[in-house]
Design brief:
It contains 10 helices and 9 strands. It is of the alpha/beta class. Bound molecules: S-adenosylmethionine. S-adenosylmethionine (SAM) binds next to strand 1 and strand 3. Its EC number is 2.1.1.182.
Length: 259
């Protein structure tokens, strides 16, 4: 098991806030409900707070950790035949190299959470589900519905590929050192292919990025040069609307015009 006798000084730049509340850990593990043969990968295992209870239930676990000191601790603290430690940046990690039917979990470094979620979206076909601890504000944005202040590019891009469910919030005191913000645990389950609303992922991403690039402007302005007002009207979408009022399905419908 991990040796805690030598203190690790948390690195702020790597978003190191280590979970220590046993009640919260038990709640996360219950939400994940690991089964012995699950193919699970943990991002940012740190000192192993979540790694340990997961390994008690799994035959094998892959982890991706950036901090070299923590990698060394994990390699000596857990049986190497049951824990495979990949040293590196999760933002660049090739999750396809692990195979498929992946269950991805992690108490993520908050400073890289959005780019990491976009990176993982590229592997959606290989993923069975994902459970993450994130800044509560980010989880609220991920799960937001149209016409609310939290609704934006992150909500639309994730909800087009995943069912997003906010599970529970976690107070700063559950971590050492405590972060300045509340956290929340979220579950993402990939939608079946027939439920993905768009045909062309690139066109969809472009329309969504444009529509939220200038939040206060209407579609007539944000999509100028890409899609004409009359084209929007022809598919029943008022060009005077703003991106934040459109459903994921309506974004998909607009992106079809680019094909
Ligand atoms: N899972 C542990 C826990 O719950 O106590 C640690 C969580 S801490 C919030 C985030 C972890 O992610 C740290 O161990 C940090 O070193 C690691 N990390 C930071 N940036 C990373 C990156 N780009 N790729 C992989 N791991 C990273």
């Amino acid at each position: 098991m991990t040796d805690f006798s030598q203190a690790h000084r948390p690195r702020k730049a790597l978003g190191q806030n280590f979970l220590h509340d046993p009640g919260v850990l038990a709640k996360i593990v219950a939400a994940i409900a690991p089964q012995p043969d699950d193919h699970m990968v943990e991002i940012g295992p740190g000192l192993g707070a979540l790694t340990r209870p997961l390994l008690e239930r799994l035959k094998h676990l892959d982890v991706v950790e950036f901090d070299r000191d923590l990698v060394a601790r994990l390699r000596t603290g857990f049986p190497p035949d049951r824990l495979t430690v990949h040293e590196g940046d999760a933002l660049k990690f090739d999750f396809a190299s692990l195979g498929d039917n992946l269950r991805v979990v992690g108490n993520l470094p908050y400073n890289i959470s959005s780019p990491l979620l976009f990176h993982l979206t590229e592997y959606a076909e290989r993923i069975r589900d994902m459970h993450f601890m994130l800044q509560k504000e980010v989880v609220d944005r991920m799960a937001a519905q149209p016409d609310t202040p939290d609704y934006g590019r992150l909500s639309v891009m994730l909800q087009a590929r995943f069912r997003v469910a906010k599970l529970f919030t976690v107070p700063p005191g559950a971590f050492r050192p405590p972060p300045k913000v509340d956290s929340a645990v979220v579950r993402l389950a990939p939608l079946p292919p027939e439920a993905i609303p768009y045909r062309d992922a690139k066109a969809f991403a472009e329309v969504v990025a444009r529509a939220f690039g200038q939040r206060r402007k209407t579609l007539r302005n944000t999509l100028k040069g890409l899609i004409g007002a009359e084209q929007l009207q022809a598919i029943g979408i008022d060009p005077g609307r703003r991106g934040e009022t459109l459903s994921v399905a309506e974004f998909a419908k607009i992106s079809q015009l680019l094909r």
